Predict the structure.
Amino acid sequence: MKAAQLTGLRQMEIRDVTDPEIAADDDVLIRMGAVGVCGSDVHYYETGNLGGRHVEYPFSVGHEGSGTVAAVGPAVTRVRPGDRVAVEPAIVCGACDQCRAGRPNTCRKIRFLGCPGEAAGCLSERLVMPERNCFPIPDGMSLETAAFCEPLSIGIYAADRSVELAGATAVILGAGPIGLSVMAAARTRGPKAIYATDKIDARLAVAGAAGAAWTGNPDRQDVVAAIRAQEPLGVDVVFECCGRQEAIDQAVQLLKPGGKLVVLGIPEVERYTIDTTAFRHNELTLFYVRRQNERVSAALELAGSGRLDVTPFVTHRFPLARAAEAFELVSAYRDGVVKAMILME
């Protein structure tokens, strides 16, 4: 089969690789249909490492995927050939202390698609996954929407772990795919207002159309002062979705006493600094989101219910043969890109 593989820094090739085969009784062979380009994929493309994980070339990336079941192992009962499925990219053991505690997202033996040292990615024509990682999708849902349910599941998890959002005020710092996913999830819970910031005006336009009460560009204005003018007492929760020190600083200035900072952004640095005086005086809470925690079903239900439309978040589409163009586009933030999607079918 063909797969898009990293072959060096900022180098990607479409290569012939060995076809995956069903090996375990609960394995499912999937013919991939759509794969989203995630910021973490681009980190590996640009630098060859992320969070202590280093690429050994060649390496297949990609973890936001959906497709059609081609074959199943003898013990599989939940899906059958011809079913369309969304892929949960985290293969977990189900037996360690973290899995038993309801924290499979921090499984001791986790194997995550497209993560060096763990598992090859799904940016390929076919993929084998355990049955428990395959979620049937509604008949009316497109494969690209199903693939986008991976970042949406992270947004749902972040909203679940934040505050009671009904009647609350929230700020999203970074209106990329994760920030927009958080906003989409949060808006279904009846917040008073959601404010969004980003350095790319096209993304602010998407956020505004998706329901942000106010948007601002921190390169051109004092976003803290602008939001504080509308929320003089501060806001209940800030979602940091861009991985920047300045966003952490802005969050601390925006939160009301007792507020919560939820961090989702993946930084390029190893450490942030925190205004400990402000954190202590205002008794703030910080929670760091690690991917998602069993929220794929919730994402599929929400995206398929008509309560929100994630299709505006997918702004660019490419065939597998042009995957390198997609990565370059996302890397350079060109053409107002939010989510680039690789379509196999």
Summary: The chain has two domains: 2-152+292-343, 162-288. The longest strand covers residues 27-36. Residues 143-160 form the longest helix (18 residues). The mean pLDDT is 95.
